[in-house]
Amino acid sequence: MTERAIGGQGASVRLDKVSFSYGETSLAFDVAFAAARITAIMGPSGSGKSTLLNLIAGFETPLSGRVLIGGADVGAEPPAARPVSMVFQENNLFAHLCVEQNVGLGRSPSLRLSEADRAAIADALARTGLAGKEKRLPRELSGGERQRVALARVLVLDRPVLLLDEPFASLGPALRDDMLDLVAGLHAERGMTVLFVTHQPEDARRIGQNVVFVDNGTVAAMGTADEFFAGTGPEAFRRYIGVSALSRDIARKRT
Amino acid sequence: MQRASDPRVTAGIVALVAIALLIGGAFAGLLVEGGHDLSGAWAAFDPYLLRVVRFTLWQAILSTLLSVVPALFVARALSRHPRFPGRAFILQLFAVPLALPAIVAALGILTLYGRAGYFSGLFSAIGGQGWPGIYGLSGILVAHVFFNLPLCVRLFLEALQTIPADQWRLASQLGMGARPAFRLIEWPTLRAALPGVAGLVFMLCITSFTIVLTLGGGPAATTLEVGIYQALRFDFDPARAVALTLLQIALTFVVVLALTRLGANVVGDTNLPVAPRRYLRVSGSEASLNTALIVLALLFVAGPMAATVMAGLGADLGRLAGEAAVRQATLTSAALAFLSALLSVMLSLALTMARRALALSRRTARRTLLEHATDTGAGFVLVVPPIVIGAGWFLLLRHAGDVFAIAPVMVVTVNAVMAMPFALRAVRPAYDAASERHERLCAQLGIFGWARLRLIDWPTLRRPLATAFAFAMALSLGDLGVIALFGSDSVQTLPYLLLARMGSYRTQDAAGLALLLGVVCLALVLAADRLRKETVVRD
């Protein structure tokens, strides 16, 4: 928690010749993500998108290579010490703790909160539209609200890199758009580097500035969202999302 | 992401060291004693010893047969009558022997079938001569069947309930009668469960101590475990105790090895869903046969319980409650069982946490030796029965001074380790499930050590831990193993006092104490069961 850039700019993220394997599958990443941009990470199931985020967050340790955040090698740091916050698809909250406590853990892992901490928590809850729900338990919230709590915690953690591992995949389209707009709004305020995994091309189009296409355990292509969705993107990407989807301006997930 | 310095791994290592110390100390005692008097230990392998081994195996084989074979048919009867009146109650009742202290059951059986038992008049009239009572092999068998028949019924019923409903639909569509349905559907399932169940019962019977001690009634019906006790407490023949102990370890080792090969459920608890099937046509004659089977089994199991309650209520409970010895024993029992349960739960939690942490940090499919130890550490207890641990320490410490002074320590530690397999069953799945949800989040937010225990693990594990605690306490409270070796006038638990009163023919007192002990243990196990069910519902 040393590199907390309060309200600061996002940090660049770079995987320098990182290799990793589990079981039979081996992955290799050599990629740099621009600082303070929103990058959508897309690719088929099992291609290694989540592993990419887990390597950055520190949940997985590379076999070789370096993970650099803001130019510093964080390879030896445990997850909590990296300047990164992450929102998962589920299990972002502790079921027995109320909304306020779940957010408060972002300030103090032992929940010893000062007055300033409490004010920051209240701010974050208001910003994510959760005012008045401080004392609720996760089971008393809707799926969207639960992910809002996770985002509120991201705000109080205030770290320069935000990783989103399909956190809105189980929400309906309208709700998902709301949540994406919330993320875009937070990005506009804080300017952190956002990497988000998604299967939905329309998500990537809605808030993604860059796109990274992961296939077969490696980064197959990258570029700006405009290039990717103008139909001039790489061949493999066009196959993945379907050419008809591009031409008809309707994106849907290929199965 | 977990490093070797994870405090959870450290906790697991501490727990393993404690267990190893307890068992290692016992072995040290045996080695010192055996090495000290090598020729004596060798000479102890005499015809008497062979007779004891033979009887140990013989009674275990008979007990297993008499428990398992009828249980097959009772379980089948229960599975074919999902709407049998009072079925849920019968199944509940069949879970009671698991909770009942052996000495309480033994007394219940004597109250019913003993020489002065409720049925002695009837049996005398039938036999035409005085009823001798059921001491010896017959007493041991009745008690073992009382404990194990209901257990087998529940295990077999659980197996039968895994038969997919579609198979039954198909069977009734094809017009399959009871006989072909048994041959083609039920028997294959039962046969698959049979080795594990029979192995478990056999294991329980060769390590049975209390039953043989109280119902064996003499040197003709002595097993290895009781032989160890007699060699130490009565004959004071350490060489023989060493020989008996080594044989007991060898025997249990072989059986446990065979059991693990068979994939047995060594704890023997069952999970019976209430999912009655309706589309099952049972002919009239079969239905009456099944009813007779179920009723017989019910009477056999309920009999000693009812006798315990009746005889206990007949005792002068008021006077008993006022007696200083009873009060002292109750307090001692409560304190020792409390500490033992606490230790058991702490050991189990430590092993569970370490196992999980090691499994998470593992990158390959191969598990380290340490992870294996945290996984199967509890299994040591099954190879080395409490009496054996007690005997080892007894021999080790008899040179060091007053053996009986360490009675409380021995009772607490040995019972704690003995209850561990049961405690682990409650704690481990809950911990692993919670860890599955929380592990990454805790790592991300930097919640570890004390903060994690207080904020995350304790609130989610409170109930499973309480379940484990209540169960471990019931086991420890009713145990008459270590205390039989180490008990004295200064340290008495309720089972020890109960044994003493039985020995001095104060039957009324014994009945009252048995009722007290039985009710408390049952209440604890019911509480454990309720807590466990609530946990399941909450999730």
Descriptors:
heterodimer, A: alpha/beta, six-stranded mixed β-sheet, four-stranded antiparallel β-sheet, disordered C terminus, B: 539 residues, mainly alpha, 0% strand, globular
Give the end-to-end Cα distance of chain A, rounded to a whole number of Å: 40 Å
Annotation field: number of helices of chain A: 9
How large is the count of helical segments of chain B? 23
User: Which percent bin holds the helix content of chain B?
Assistant: over 70%
**Oligomer description:** heterodimer
Biggest interface, CB < 8 A: A-B, 26 and 20 residues
Which value, in Å, is the CA radius of gyration of chain B? 24 Å
**Fraction in helix of chain A:** 25-40%
Describe this structure in words.
The complex is a heterodimer of chains A (255) and B (539). Chain A is of the alpha/beta class and 255 residues long. Helix content of chain A is 35%, strand content 23%. Chain A contains nine helices and ten strands. Chain A has helices at residues 49-57, 99-104, 115-127, 143-157, 173-190, 201-207, 225-232, 235-241, 243-247; strands spanning 13-22, 25-33, 38-42, 64-69, 72-73, 84-87, 161-165, 193-197, 210-215, 218-224. The relative contact order of chain A is 0.18. The model of chain A is unreliable at 1-7 and 247-255 (pLDDT under 50). Chain B contains 23 helices and no strands. In chain B, helix 12 packs antiparallel against helix 18 and helix 15 (324-361) crosses helix 20 (449-478). The mean pLDDT of chain B is 83. The two termini of chain B are 27 Å apart. Chain B is mostly helical and 539 residues long. Chain A binds chain B through residues 1, 22, 57-61, 78-81, 85-86, 88, 91-92, 94-97, 105-106, 109-111, 157, and chain B through 1, 3, 363, 437-438, 440-441, 443-448, 450-451, 454-456, 459-460.
